[in-house]
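URGENT: need a sanity check before tomorrow's submission.

F., can you look over the Protein FAR1-RELATED SEQUENCE record below? I want to be sure the sequence and structure line up before it goes out.
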Amino acid sequence: MESTSTEDEGSLRENDVDLNNENMEQQMTMEVGSHFADSENLLTSHEETLENVEPFIGMEFESEEAAKLFYMAYASRVGFSVRISKSRRSRNDESIIMRRFVCSKEGFHLKKGNYDDGKKKRKRATIREGCNAMIEVIQKYYGRWVVTKLVKEHNHVVAAPSRVRYIAPEAYAGMEPFVGMEFPSHEAAQTFYYAYASRIGFDVRIRLSRRSTRDETFVMRRFVCTKEGFTPFEENFDESKKKRNRTPSRQECKAMFEVIKKDSERWIVSKLVTDHTHDLAVAPNKVHYIQSQSEVVVLAKNASSREKPAPPVNFKPQLGDGFGDFDVLSSNDQDSRTDLRNACQSAFGLEDLQILLDSLKKMQAESPAFFYVFQVDKNNQITNIFWADAKAKMAYYCFGDVVTLDTSCKENKSMLPFVMFTGVNHHLQSVAFGCALLIDESEASFTWLFENWLVAMCGRPPISIVTDYHEAMTAAIARVFPDARHQLSRYHILKKSQEELSNVYLAHDSFEIEFLKCIDESETVETFELHWKSILDKYDLSDNCWLQLLHSIRHKWASVYHKDTFTADISLPEKPESLSLFFEKYFNRKTSLQIFVTILDQAMAVWYEREALEDFASSCTRPTLITPSNMLKQAAEIYTRTIFEVFQKEFVESLGYFIDNIDSGGVISKYNVTKDDSHNFVVTHNSSDKRTSCSCCMFERSGILCRHILRLFLSINVRALPEHYILKRWTKDAKNGFVLDECARYSDLVCHVIRYAKEGSTSPDVFNIAKHALQMAFTEVLAAKKDIASRCAM
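Structure tokens as predicted:
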């Protein structure tokens, strides 16, 4: 009996490069009869190239391909196999910006449920052993790829192969595959087909394997073109929803090469399709490493290519180390083709940048409260710019409890890399807390942005900050806002899920309904986990990488995990608009920065005017009361029109609920509040401090009392809203009390302190003098504050 397994790697692996995936137990003998010539003499110096090179944190490469080839060569020398474990793409242009290469024995195989169906089960060989060896490279803003994570230790035995062979596709220039072609092993067949594919102009992945039930050896292997199959979400999508413009990776190509084992000595080509549905490349830019315990076979790009793995750009070659043929690029080489100077010029233009800086400088001269700062690299080239005006500071003072970093513009590569700190005001309208042009998306750049934004906002961190999923951004938030609750945008999570699970959405109409129910209707963590597991089991998604990632970060996006944190989350038929919907109508990356600033000012003027009109309407008009309730009359006097409508809806809905006392034996009483025998909500009331809470946590989340608490108030004769349940940020007086001069003074002092720190840290002696002087000045400031406070108290 034989068993078949599919080996399509999915979206997180590079299918067109053989990096020893789950089938890396291959035993390469490389004896393909008389068909194959020994090409060991092609690159005999190749082994010398790798002899003294070890990976290290901070190692830089000119490209992802160079990093990949280096690590594969290193792995071949040490004696382990490599596969791609994780990738990350840029939201701007879909290019790969992060790669994680791991030992092929990384992780564990998921165990299927234990059940007995009467059939004899065979014991599969264990391929994964939980090895932690890995290397991760990230593309930096200056174009190079840097090693950011590295684990060199393995938890299993590694053994260097006896030799490395280098074979070019031209070695088989006269050979074409045909049905009935024989090979001494499936590894030999694989090597031949990879070489054939490289010479013809396409890439290969392993599609299907079948093993013997007797000894677990392979008895069938099917190799296909990497464009085999199709990408369903490219053909089926909702035009009303904005989709990322992904390049289709599958084009239903039928090309394939299947070999089966006839006896212990022969492998026969049993199926063959040579026609492709797409254009073939002249020469694929790939180098394949096929490894076994005995040797490593390297399929070079072409016969003339005596190509060694590219050295790291900050590796210093020594005489005789094998790197003499490379133009080694130093990490401080100012002539690099990917220098940040070119990036800045292509993103903005030097003339545009100067105009923008002049404009920002003029704004600061006209208003001392205006704040701007820019970041430069070692060549004094501008990389990032941030600014915030007085109105942004005022808006943050009043409504800065919840902040969203809107990066939607950066998702579209045709638009400027514009980001904005936003929030919602007391009319549930969008307000701006500052703007930035951000070329780089590294942790250092986000840290710089958050630190300077915090300075501009007078040093007051938010309660919650909402962003898209971005690892570098997450790390920066944890560093700059350690006490803030970081949450991921629900819209972004759902949008990304539709992309990553497009085939599931298309195949099962019920999936989206159940997925949303799990996210939005789970009242407890236990309920969420049960619903999640039920979805994985029902749709066979336990091995889905995207859902595994989502579950690992569920505390940042699933509402049940942060329902007790204030997020200003109020359900509305119309949500505050996304920046991209506005800006994509009027400008793109070709727009000059001068015009961009003008359009931005006009957009902000519209926001301010809209807020002013709503302020006037709330002050001069009275809303219509559905019922003559004293509590509604009070709310109409206090809340803005928009918030009152939300409150009145909750109040009216409360009239349809039933209440049942379940525990009233003391100061604290508990009640069940329900409607039509549906889900119960537990409301707890403390009679001593007049505090009431509900299991739905609506007040904690939004600052508006829920219908369940309002129903209890009716029952216990509370006829007016307690003062501690009226949030100022939702009232007509939300903007009273803002002191602009305080923010201006704070920003001015921060600028002086930064200059002081730069000058005071130039040498140990100067540092000691600066520190002593600062301590003296701080003592005088505290004494002055105390003296002023005592005089005011008289």
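My own read: The radius of gyration is 32 Å. Residues 764-793 form the longest helix (30 residues). If you see anything odd, call me.
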